[in-house]
Write a structure and sequence with these properties.
Radius of gyration: 35 Å
Oligomer: single chain
Largest sheet: 9 strands, mixed
Distance between the termini: 111 Å
């Protein structure tokens, strides 16, 4: 003990000498050594208070008063648990008066100009943590949507940091600080549009998770409609009440309340009425159900969903598909960091043993498609409704888009049979970027032959309206009509080729998926003639007129048709002999073309007749068709 006291005295002596030379930081190190020697600790603390704390006291009080302007509760300056001992111009040693020990330092340089973390849609709760340095680390990791701090018994430690100049500048603007848990609960009850914290930092995390879950349940069981919806899940439905009810019940298992809503629009169904009534009677504040008196068509129903939605963004879902919860957090994060995005398409996963499509086309790569020609081409491939999303702020601004689609008979757009959501994308392509997002947001259900995303009539056959060649050809006309309003002639030509190829490719997919039916009702060569004739009609009626399209343009257009003439995609619908004939037919057509015969003047019937004998000799057997 005697030696310790001697060392303590020596350290104090050195510290005072250093102070006399205005070497405050070095002096403080010796005061700390003296204190840690367990000598006359009170005496050492009085030295520190005299030379370091008291000269800063008035400034600390002024800082404290200014920083306290951001909170709505009162805490006495004298009850602060930490003292801050300046060791340099921008750094302080932190002393815990309650525990009687030094506990590290606070250096402004650690927080000034620090790289900001990734922006996230999630909100965070930090509870029972008094050391602001730990809290600042959490804030530096992410830019949270909203941050909640609950102090409880840690209030004396946390409020101590308010002594520091501009300390609150290190806190996010969207932080809410509460002196105890009850105040937080009351705040969230009084502000049901505030997003609940889904990320929690607390020593007793289970307690706070249970608290948040209780508030969540109270919110969804209320009849109040939210006013701060970020994402609207829109389900246009027709004659598939059972599927729609199942999808809604599944989607309601999500953890969100104020952030997300579900909009169901029943397009005047006559089937599944009991299930639709069940949706209407669901006691969940997130569900909004609307019913049209009669079937107004697919375009009208989609628009009804989007017009009723209150979110910043909306995403369409077929009633046979369900929400993929693992992807929802990612999607919300992505949209929250890309608030100016005009529209998007997300991925889906397979939820059945049925053979289903997937968005893996090389023409449909992940990334942003800039407004104009890029976005217009992108819109061609947004076929499947589930996962297609829009920025509702923009759709509300350009509300004429809804009118064009709902009244397509008056606006010359043929959208009732297929893909009105693609048309919305094309309208948006003039003004905004679109994006393919590599986030799986939906589980793809088993396709149904009745109702749902179908046209006005309730389908009784097995061919969907979107699979009929005549409807696909009409779609081509509408797609080009929309885009010519804002594209230059050179960009319009690019889109024309892509749109024509997409048109023939879509018909080929119908042949592949409906082999017997399509080959009996349609002839593949005749399809090419019909599409080509439609192309000429589109060009004649375009604002430039057909004269604006030169010889090179038509040569490139002809190449599109030749590329599809011998189509591998449809080969499963035909026999080996028929496919052999198709290959020879394409080669002979090419020869005629190279000899100067225009594509539409090629006599395919004469070619077929001349091929019969050749094929019969090469592949004996049943006569080819």
């Amino acid at each position: 003990m005697y030696i310790q006291r001697n060392e303590t005295g020596l350290y104090l002596y050195i510290a005072e000498k250093l102070l006399a030379c205005e070497k405050h930081e070095e002096a403080l190190n010796y005061f700390r050594k003296a204190y840690e020697q367990d000598g006359d600790s009170l005496k050492v603390l009085l030295y520190i208070e005299k030379y370091y704390v008291l000269p800063q006291e008035q400034r600390f009080k002024e800082n404290y008063a200014r920083n306290c302007e951001m909170i709505d509760f009162t805490f006495r300056y004298e009850d602060c648990q930490f003292n801050f001992i300046p060791s340099s111009d921008d750094a302080y040693e932190v002393f815990d008066k309650g525990e009687g020990k030094f506990c590290g330092s606070f250096d402004y340089s650690d927080y000034k100009n620090r790289p900001m973390g990734n922006k996230t849609f999630q909100s965070v709760l930090i509870a029972d943590t008094g050391d602001a340095r730990d809290i600042l680390e959490i804030f530096n990791n992410h830019l949270w949507n909203t941050a909640y701090i609950v102090l409880n018994n840690a209030i004396g430690k946390f409020m101590s940091f308010f002594k520091l100049l501009d300390f609150t500048a290190f806190l996010p603007n969207n932080v809410h600080i509460f002196e105890d848990t009850k105040k937080l609960v009351d705040f969230l009850a009084q502000n049901p549009d505030m997003y609940l914290p889904r990320v929690i930092y607390a020593s007793d995390q289970i307690k706070y998770e249970a608290m948040i879950e209780k508030i969540h349940q109270e919110r969804i069981q209320s009849e109040r409609q939210g006013k701060n919806v970020f994402l609207s899940i829109c389900i246009p439905s027709y004659n598939r009440g059972k599927l729609a009810l199942s999808a809604v019940q599944h989607d309601l298992q999500m953890k969100y309340d104020a952030e997300v809503e579900i909009i169901v629009s029943n397009n005047g169904s006559s089937i599944g009425l009991e299930e639709y009534k069940s949706i209407e009677n669901i006691k969940d504040s997130r569900v909004q159900y609307f019913e049209l008196e009669r079937n107004m068509g697919i375009g009208f129903n989609i628009c009804n969903c989007l017009e009723k939605a209150r979110g910043h963004f909306a995403i369409l879902f077929s009633d046979e598909d369900s929400l993929f919860f693992d992807g929802l957090d990612e999607l919300l994060d992505h949209l929250f960091t890309h608030m100016d995005l005009g529209g998007f398409v997300s991925d889906y996963t397979i939820n059945s043993t049925e053979k289903c499509g997937a968005r893996k086309s090389k023409k449909f790569q992940t990334g942003v498609y800039r407004k104009g020609i890029e976005a217009a081409i992108f819109s061609l491939y947004t076929c499947y409704v589930t996962g297609v999303g829009f920025n509702l702020l923009y759709l509300r601004k350009y509300s004429n888009i809804f009118e064009c689609i709902k009244n397509s008979d008056k606006s010359k757009y043929s959208m009732e049979c297929i893909y009105p959501h693609s048309a919305i994308f094309e309208f948006l392509a003039e003004y905004f970027d679109l994006e393919k997002i590599e986030i799986t947001i939906a589980a793809y259900g088993i396709p149904s032959k009745i109702g749902g995303f179908e046209g006005i009539e309730d389908r009784k056959d097995v061919v969907f309206s979107y699979q009929k060649p005549e409807n696909i050809i009409n779609l081509q006309t509408s797609q080009l009509l929309i885009s010519e309003a804002f594209l230059s002639l050179s960009d319009y030509k690019k889109l024309f080729f892509r749109c024509t190829s997409f048109c023939i490719g879509s018909i080929a997919s119908s042949f592949r998926d409906l082999e017997d039916i399509m080959r009996k009702q349609y002839n593949w060569t005749d399809i090419h003639i019909s599409v080509y004739q439609n192309c000429l009609q589109i060009l004649r009626e375009s604002k430039w007129g057909i004269e604006a399209f030169d010889k090179k343009f038509f040569h490139d257009l002809d190449e599109v048709f030749f590329d599809w003439l011998d189509c591998r995609r449809i080969r499963s619908a035909y026999s080996e002999k028929e496919n052999f004939k198709a290959t020879l037919r394409a080669q002979m057509a090419r020869y005629c073309y190279d000899q100067g015969v225009p594509f539409l003047e090629i006599d395919f019937r004469a070619i077929d007749e001349s091929l019969e004998t050749i094929i019969e000799q090469a592949v004996p057997g049943e006569k080819s068709i």
